[in-house]
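Exercise 7.
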Amino acid sequence: IQTMTITGTTNNRMQGLVQVESAGFWVSRDVQMSRNATLGEPAGFPLQLAWQDSHDIAYEVTYSENGTTLSRTLVENGESPVRTLIAQDIDTAACSTNVSRSGGLLVFNVTAASGDVEVSHSYTIQPRLAVLSEGR
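Solution. The predicted structure, written as tokens, is:
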């Protein structure tokens, strides 16, 4: 019984870690590309990011929470939006998963709950162009 309990807990921890790392990867990637970041209320969601690449292609990305999922909606050059599930089993309580500003940096805290195990991580991200809009 102890082996089964430990294995279950380990599996839950790994599942939570995968979700937290996926969320951190995508949010960090897009924030580093962004020229503008607009945080929603109360916990920074929806998080809206925008930038233009060297080929004059405009990108708009919105991160939003829905239930226990975090999704990413990409609009490229005003085309139809493409929505992607980034992470699931996310604890969307404002104290557990949130985005905030700290100086010129964006701080993304994320918590995933799988079974009876919670996994949390804090990402401090500097936009590549070091420009964050003050819009809310």
